[in-house]
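Notebook B, p. 112. Complex prediction, attempt 2.
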Amino acid sequence: MSLDTRIGPEPTLSPPSGSGSRRLKRAVSAVFWFCLTLALTFLGLLAITFFIGRIIPIDPVLAVVGDRASAQTYEAARVAMGLDRPLPVQFLSYVGDILTGNFGTSVSTGRPVLSDLGRVFPATLEMATLGIIIGVALGVPMGVIAASRQGSFVDQGIRVLGLLGYSVPAFWLGLVGLALFYAHLRWVGGPGRLDIFYDGLVPYVTGIMLIDSLLAGDFDVFRNAIWHLVLPASVLGFFSLAYIARMTRSFMLDQLSQEFVTTARVKGVPERVVIWRHAFYPIRIQLITVIALSYAGLLEGSVMIETVFSWPGIGNYLTSALLNADMNAVLGATLVIGAVFILINKISDVLYRVLDPRAR
Amino acid sequence: MSAPLLELENLRVSFPTAHGRVEVVKGISFTLGRERLGIVGESGSGKSMTGRSILKLIRSPGKVTADRMTFDGVDLLGQSERQMRAIRGARISMVMQDPKFSLNPVMTVGDQIAEALRFHARLSKGERKARVLSMLEAVRIDDPERVSRLYPHEVSGGMGQRIMIAMMLIPEPDLLIADEPTSALDVSVQSQVLDIIDDLIRTKGMGLIFISHDLNLVSRYCDRILVMNSGRVVEECAASELADASHPYTRGLLAAMPRLDETREELPVLDRASWGGT
């Protein structure tokens, strides 16, 4: 389709409206395929979580009725949970349940899993998003600067920082951060999302404290939320920064040795433009993948960080659900994390196509 | 011949290795007017390094020294990086080897050509665009409007190289260095591209340094020829007198060229012992 616009005899003579409608048609079909692959991938994810739930040696019935229940009670619960039906039927009803938002009830919290997830996931989302923003805003420029001054003092410093990001344990950095900035310097808030007397002051809308407090117009809560968020997000940001800076540096070094960079220099283009426009521009595409993966990693919920900061996020939730054999909660959380992975990958796919003329 | 455009005296380029600095250009000297000079030699003879050192594009840790390196009265070695930027592109330009690698893959052809003008001339966007289109026409591209919107991966090698030439000649430099401009192209489009360079160089009265390993092409498109081997100039002669070259290395190169009008059992290879070279 893209070919015939090029080798057609007189492409400039075709009316502009024709090419416009063709572009529209292409966009529509792109959206269609996007949705279709998204749906199929999601179905695959559902199949995986469903079969994990059936394969692992945790008896969901036992978790509900307890191990001292009689055989009749056990059997009655089994039928009530629909576990006596054939697997494909169970899978279909599982898919139906998920689509209608019925994730089951959590054994340990006694609430519907969906409402639990609606509480814990925004907490993680908030922290991870701020973390990735810090990581990208600092990591990308650092990588570019390191590469453009390869071997210099700055480069060495950034490399050491990157090395620390790989070797320092997250919980240690979190604890040291708390000890220094919270306990000693009092620059940031302590563990938790809010100080206790701010808890429950703003109504739940999105679950993201920064947004909810703004919606409620309560700036004290907003300030307190940032106060608490800054340290854990910075710790997460540090780890993604280390990874992003390292990848940016190596992508840039690769680009700077390309012939077209020399071409730009031959043209008398200033070095700043050579670095940002000629070398950095092409690697945005690779960087998207790196950043997306890094973000998805943060969204999984870092159990270590969430534990250290008593952050009520999805990592914490998933871990305690696992320890309590709370299968509905485990599968629900897994599903959310899987869906986030799929979505982020899809979005980076689309960005890839928008940014790279060779992939259009 | 007019006043010399470029004067080189005892140019040396060296790189550090584990066994000390290695010189890849070992003291070459020549002067160039507004004429066409060919530099020939085998791979690794230092031809490209010579070309790049004129633009001071040898990156650290490589080192360029010379007793004298002046361009139009300006001492190139004494120029700061900033001053060199005003010379690169605007006064001395270079056509690189392979358009597949030497054009930026994510910028349109038109933008890349316009960029060569952007830092050397104060022009409005419209004027720049008009110049780009007329330059594309000058390198015999039929539909410049359309081609200027294409990306490098959408054009053929021959067209890519013509775009490269347009990009390098648009600020109207005085000296063009063509570093193996056709070795990545099909033989069928080689002469097409070289004819364009030749034509533009002559009409604009520029100087040309044509770096190649192809003796035939060099003798056809140049006035004067330098033959280089392992960092030294071993022979300098007028292009028309190449056939009477005296140095054993040049003779060896000439003898190793296959000809259409003869049949030989076996092509002779270079007898490196005869002149004590590499």
